[in-house]
Amino acid sequence: MTENDLIELGFNRYDETDPQIGDWYYLAADWNGIELISNASDEWDSDGLYVEVFETNIRFRGSGDLWQMKELIYNNLK
């Protein structure tokens, strides 16, 4: 999964600055109330890029599953 994959999925980039560790960013999206957030960009070299459903134990490491989840959500809205 790449940063570009997440941007294509509708994620937005949020830049952060910390005097201790420097500049970093993360990507996040809200799919009809389901909040998704990537790990911090300064972790990508060691951990790879992944996305979690906020405040759950659900983690995605591939964009294919995220595309399926997005399709399921938006195809089944009332």
Q: How would you sum up this structure, described in words?
A:
This protein has 78 residues and is an alpha+beta fold. It has one domain. 29% of the residues lie in helices and 35% in strands. The chain has a five-stranded antiparallel beta sheet. A hairpin with a 3-residue loop joins strand 1 and strand 2 (22-31). The longest helix has 13 residues, at 63-75. The model has no long low-confidence stretch (mean pLDDT 94).
Brief rundown of the structure:
With 78 residues, this protein is an alpha+beta fold.
Q: What structural class do you assign from the helix and strand content?
A: alpha+beta
| Poorly predicted tracts of residues | none
> Which strand order spans the largest sheet, edge to edge or round the barrel?
1-2-3-4-5
The count of β-strands is 5
Major beta sheet summary:
5 strands, antiparallel
Succession of helices and strands: HEEEHEEH
Integer average pLDDT: 94
Number of helical regions: 3
The amount of beta strand, in percent, is: 25-35%
Distance between the termini: 30 Å
Given the C-alpha coordinates, what overall shape results?
Answer: elongated
- Taking all Cα atoms into account, the compactness measure Rg is 13 Å
Residues in helix, %: 25-40%
Number of separate structural domains: 1
Labels describing this entry:
78 residues; alpha+beta; five-stranded antiparallel β-sheet; 3 helices; 29% helix
Q: What's the helix and strand layout?
A:
Blueprint: H1 3-8, E1 12-18, E2 22-31, E3 34-38, H2 44-47, E4 51-53, E5 59-60, H3 63-75
Antiparallel strand pairs: 1-2, 2-3, 3-4, 4-5
